[in-house]
Design a protein that fits this description.
Layout: H1 3-22, H2 29-36, H3 40-48, E1 54-56, E2 65-67, H4 70-77
Antiparallel strand pairs: 1-2
Helix pairs in contact: 2-3
């Protein structure tokens, strides 16, 4: 493994560690969007499709909510299966 790859992976791991420390239960959509370099709307779409978290819509409501559980996101990011 080259030094460039090692440096990249170390920096990536540090970012994830900081997120885990600051958001141990669930990660705000904005934080995930910034980490991935995409818009929060893209993250909300991924969550609504079940890839990154949990989404819901109450009966009779036009908008819904979402949640990105930290454990689920970290496992997804690091490609760890249970």
């Amino acid at each position: 493994m080259t030094e460039a790859i090692k440096t990249y992976l170390e920096a990536d791991t540090e970012k994830i560690e900081q997120i885990i420390e600051k958001y141990p239960r669930q990660i705000p959509t904005k934080i995930v969007a910034e980490l991935m370099g995409v818009s929060p709307e893209n993250i909300r779409q991924a969550v609504s499709e079940g890839e990154l978290g949990i989404s819901w819509r109450k009966p009779g409501k036009l908008t819904g909510g979402n949640c990105i559980p930290t454990p689920k996101f970290v496992r997804w990011w690091l490609n760890i299966s249970r």
